[in-house]
Design goal:
The protein is an alpha+beta fold. Helices cover 33% and strands 26% of the residues. It has 12 helices and 17 strands. It is globular.
Length: 376
């Protein structure tokens, strides 16, 4: 049973490209997503997802997700891993997601039938699909964010006041934990981040254990198929010798904010998040435009010539200026020729509780949220 199947490497690349686009600078890497899904395809597995309408309301669902900073790991971290005996990967990424779900099943005493991606992103969405395949489950066509986000409460289950806990956790090395209770969602997020910090790497977690009926009430529907279509549009624009930067912008009703070069990169790794600023200097038609973009794993605040321009929950996305390929924040380097584009947020995140979770105040900007279409 699958509403959509990816039957070739090209289709896998299209899907992961689109998911990376919606990852807004985070959500895991394109390379890891293609790698995990292409290996399953080569092994003869069927890769795809199911429309929510095809899933029985009484099926049990869960949401596996990656937890931790996406910042590059230096030699000091590698030495610490060795000192603590973390040298052999017992649970590679897709497998660790499946193991986290198994830990959640044991804790709740239920059998999970359906997996739901927490967000869109090249690595995280693909890992959810892979873990469903590896454990004999299905993946629903949708997610709980419609983009990528740094914190677990910035999701639709929080907006609709659903249950997060308990959480199952499994890191690469085989450390297994459960989080049974937490003071609130933010504390659950902090505990998860500290588990990833302790493991010197990201860890897989699983939560949001509820029925498919509840899942359908909070799901951002159809986003895996949408990711595939966006990724496909970028590739096909290149093949037609058209501007690939404009393909997803036209499809989604977005905007090009700037085309130019990365003139400055500042970043730091703290508390399990990848923080920083990218500065973009416009060229050609955008000469005289300077954008500064703040990221906390993903892009959240964009300033144009020192004035607030676009903020979360609206999406700020950096792509290669020539190929249209989305670029995650870990890969952005000074001197790159890029385009910065913006896309409207999902409607649910423009509600009062949605803005409480993902509005600009969460990232240090005091001015109230203004929808991107009004600013531009």
């Amino acid at each position: 049973m699958a509403t959509k199947q990816l039957t070739s490497l090209t289709e896998i690349e299209d899907f992961v490209r689109g998911a990376t686009f919606f990852g807004t600078g985070g959500g895991g890497s394109y390379e890891s997503g293609v790698d995990v899904l292409s290996k399953l395809l080569e092994a003869g597995q069927k890769i795809g997802w199911v429309d929510a309408s095809e899933i029985s309301d009484d099926a049990m669902t869960a949401c596996p997700f990656g937890m931790g900073s996406i910042a590059p790991k230096g030699e000091e971290v590698k030495k610490q891993r060795e000192a603590f005996g973390c040298t052999v990967e017992k649970y590679p990424r897709g497998v660790s997601f499946a193991k986290a779900v198994a830990v959640l099943e044991e804790e709740t005493g239920t059998k999970v039938d359906v997996l739901v991606p927490i967000e869109l992103g090249g690595g995280n969405s693909s890992s959810c699909i892979a873990s469903a395949i590896l454990s004999g489950r299905i993946t629903v066509d949708g997610d709980y964010t419609g983009r990528a986000i740094p914190e677990i409460y910035q999701t639709t289950p929080y907006i609709y006041e659903k249950q997060l806990l308990p959480l199952g956790s499994c890191d690469t090395w085989g450390n297994i934990c459960t989080v049974k209770e937490a003071v609130n969602w933010r504390m659950a997020e902090r505990i998860g981040k500290m588990l990833s910090v302790a493991a010197f790497t990201g860890c897989a977690m699983a939560g949001f254990a509820f029925t498919a009926k509840e899942m359908k009430e909070v799901l951002v529907h159809g986003t895996l198929t949408e990711s595939y279509e966006v990724g496909k549009s970028i590739r096909e624009a290149r093949e037609r010798a058209e501007d690939p930067v404009l393909a997803p912008v036209k499809m989604l009703g977005g905007w090009v904010l700037c085309r130019g070069v990365v003139s400055k990169k500042e970043w730091w790794d703290k508390d399990g998040y990848y923080w920083g600023w990218h500065t973009f200097s416009g060229t050609g038609d955008y000469a005289g435009t300077e954008l500064r973009v703040f990221f906390k794993n993903e892009n959240h605040l964009c300033y144009k010539n020192d004035e607030v321009h676009v903020t979360s929950p609206d999406m700020i996305i950096v792509v290669d200026d020539k190929t249209g390929e989305p670029i995650t924040n870990t890969l952005i380097e000074e001197g790159m020729e890029v385009a910065v584009v913006a896309v409207k947020a999902r409607d649910v995140f423009r509600t009062e509780r949605g803005l409480e979770a993902l509005g600009p105040q969460n990232f240090g900007e005091e001015s109230p949220y203004t929808p991107v279409e009004k600013r531009l």
